[in-house]
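On clarity, I found the account of how folds are encoded harder to follow than it need be. Since the whole study asks how a given chain folds, the encoding of that fold should be made plain. The format is easy to grasp once an entry is in front of the reader. For illustration, here is how one protein appears when written out as sequence plus structure tokens.
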Amino acid sequence: MSTPDIRVEKGHADPEEVAAITAILLARAAARPEPSATHRARPKAGWRRLEREPGFRAPHSWH
């Protein structure tokens, strides 16, 4: 007999509980994510234009 695919590390799981978690994991693995309906035309640039930034930011500010 081979080693089981799912092992209970702590506690005691009934066969029904192991079957339930196995079914959930298999359903999640088989599910295909739906394509997102909203996406931006252009991604946000990773750089900033310094002329559009305010001149001074306080060192304790969030921005």
Notes: The chain has a mean pLDDT of 77. DSSP finds one helix and no strands in the chain. Residues 54 and 60 are 15 Å apart (CA to CA).
